[in-house]
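Q: What would this chain look like folded?
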Amino acid sequence: CVCEIHGRALEWRCADKIGQDQGSNRSGRQWDQWNKERCTQDGCASTVFYIDDNMNGGDSSAGFTICKHCTRPSRPNVLMFHDTDENVLRDIAHQRHRYQAW
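A: My prediction, written as structure tokens:
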């Protein structure tokens, strides 16, 4: 059994939740603008997608990959320094519980 403690770099997901920290909006001018445009679609929270080396699988016409549901920026599905994205943390917690059960 493998326990992925930092997520999967080959998976991508919506970056919408990076504007929050433990359920509260981050503060500051840039975060205020980010959170004002928050996505309300459930698909963003639960969907990961894959992009190959040629950027197939994601729209990168804006210079970065975008979410397939809301067209906001997407991010690799990995835990980064001081990361509080609850969607990534949820996936990692699921892996940890699965490993412990094994």
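The chain has a mean pLDDT of 76.
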